[in-house]
Amino acid sequence: MQNKLRMPSKETILAKIKTNRPNLWPLPDVPIFETSVTDKKKLFIQILERGGSKVHCIDDSSQIHQVITTHFPENNRMVSTLPLLEGMEGITTLHPDFYEGTEVAIIEGLIGVAENGALWVTENELGKVRVLPFIAQHLVMVISAKNIVGTMHEAYKILGLPTTEGFGVFIAGPSKTADIEQSLVIGAQGARSLLVIVTP
Amino acid sequence: MMPHAQKAAIFNKDEARTDWHDASLWMVRKKRDFAVSEIPEWEFLREFASDIKMHTLSKLDDYLESFEKAAIQNGAIVHWAADAKEHNDIVLSILNKHQAKKMVKSKSMLTEECHLNEFLEHHNIEVIDSDLGERIIQMLNEPPSHIVLPAIHLKKEEIGELFHRELHTEKGATDPQYLTEAARHHLREKFHTAQVALTGVNFGIAETGEIVVCTNEGNADMGVHLTPVQIHSMGIEKLIPRRSDLAVFTRLLARSATGQPVTVFTSHHRNPKPAGEMHIILVDNGRTEQLGKPDFRSSLKCIRCGACMNTCPIYRRSGGHSYETTIPGPIGSILTPGIDLKKHGQLPFASTLCGSCTDVCPVKIDIHTQLYKWRQIVSEAGLPEGGNKTMMSIMGSGLASPSFFHRLGNIGRKLLRLFPGKERFLSFTVWTKDRDLPKAPVESFREWYAKQTKDAQ
Questions:
Q1: What is the pLDDT of residue A2?
Q2: Partner residue facing B218 (CB), from A8, A19, A134
């Protein structure tokens, strides 16, 4: 009986907030802070390398394949969501476990952020296989230099609100941990390395 | 419960280890300073972050409703939990609904606060903490000693020994690379076999119903994307109004926490994966109570970066476990007395009130002011607070009366000259513990001044 009479938690919580909340505090308009650095591409590369990523700049997208085979000469399982590169597998199923054993995943980054080396990607660029950049042993991200912005403010301004994508992520390097005595170890639970290919 | 000072004294017995702990955390603080120096508008960002959070708190009910509406539209299932018990019951009911017996969990201080692991294990659910540091302390059956670096108190030799026992690594192996690799293989298997994944939440966005999780290891994403059911446990104070506000907070969080320019992964989850299920649990557990305390409500701005711990001279030299709270250090010492004054009332005294915590806080919580205010409340409640009472009352009357102060000074100087070094006669106060008093001058300034004016005449 008691249970039936009890107000549901949602109502209890909201009622308590109404009683306890402070007076209205104004919401600030945050300006779009831009970086003072003129060469955003250079800063982007610098920060990525500092965080343990490799960066390779190319003059023409036709060189992507060659860069990848130079970095990964072994004939391993490669999954790509870019327009199919020769010898690579595309998305054939949405079942995430299927992609365990992927040695290299190749995906496109939509926006690069110079101040922290982060690359934005949504599930649309992952063929809806959200786990792909995490489950692969190594990750390759291709980004156009035109899409490199200075700060996170600029990035979120371009991103706006999500429309079709149910998942999006900024990736700023290989997975890492320093949980054992603060010693940096690259390759924790996700990709062991990140190679960023910057196209014009 | 043993008082903080007593636990700290035990921690301090191993001097070399205390120094090591102190230095490890100071290194993180220095990395933070470097990362902060790269952002010229840092102070503006702190101000914006603080205002955004205060604004959200002032309209928290509205924002929670907008968030819920958006999340439901996205296809998520939203639950409300008034307290830890309700939160745990909800998690268990989701597991039961899917007949799940195995759950992977990424770092979540909220579930530590709710003691979720013990609860689920009691109901025969296997819970696997998947953050490396969390997995280590889970295997040791210990609570985290830091909110960002849960195993910061452990030496690699101890972790090597543990992994040899639990994961059959080579005996005597202590190389962090090797040990991390062993954990990677161990956890990969768990990600593929668990039926449910649970994560904490760094930010909930009211306008989109998204939840954002910031990690370095990739464990949260491995769990969420590999299991059919994802659960996100979120304290109600984690809300921010706009997606663009993330620009402010992502710039502040990792720089303050570890000195990285951003966490490796900043994941925005909006809806369940194909054929998946997404649950969001909004948890109060004392937060609305804290919201009603004008002096202390701003503690709810906290984004759990841990910078106040890394900088705190007491935390660094007493270790996280000495606080006996889920959230240790300066921020924990202002969050917990409101939950249980009797149990945690001594913690506001585990501070020098130096204010360093306030200086590094990315959301400008006046931590040391609140520590001071909690002390008033604890003292007024007549609770024991750490052994300084006698000295405080002597000092109080001494400072209130010029003549008594003068006499007290005289006695003090004489005693110091008679018994230099360790001041045994002051053993009733903890102030002289592990500390030497300065050499006593022959005369006080007042005596010297009186002599000077006399000579001048």
A1: 42
A2: A134
Q: Are strands B203-205 and B196-199 parallel, antiparallel or unpaired?
A: unpaired
Query: What is the Cα–Cα distance from B305 to B330, expressed in whole angstroms?
Result: 12
Helices (H), chain A: 2-5, 9-20, 40-50, 64-71, 132-135, 152-159
- Give mean pLDDT, residues B143-166: 96
Instruction: Name the residue of chain A whose CA is nearest to B61's CA.
Output: A14
Q: To 5 degrees, how large is the angle CA B274–CA B280–CA B284?
A: 180
Of B164, B228, B222, the closest CA to residue B188 belongs to: B222
What percentage of residues in chain B have a pLDDT greater than 70? 95
Q: What's the whole-number mean pLDDT along residues A49-58? A: 97
By Cβ distance, the residue of B54, B60, B150 closest to A17 is B60
pLDDT at B107: 87
Tokens of B81: 């939990």
Using a cut of 0.95, tell me whether the model's pTM lies above it.
no
Distance of CA B199 to the CA centre of its chain: 18
Smallest Cβ–Cβ distance between A115 and the set B61, B246, B261 belongs to B261
Is B188 within 8 Å of A168 when comparing Cβ atoms?
A: no
Chain A to chain B Cβ contacts (< 8 Å): 260
CA angle at B202 for the pair B325 and B52, rounded to the nearest 5°: 105
ipTM of the complex: 0.96
B132's enclosing H/E stretch is helix B132-139
Q: Characterize B365-384 residue by residue with b for buried, 16 or more Cβ atoms within 10 angstroms of its Cβ, and e for exposed.
A: bbbbebbebbbebbeeeeee
Residues of B within 8 A of A157 (CB-CB) are 244
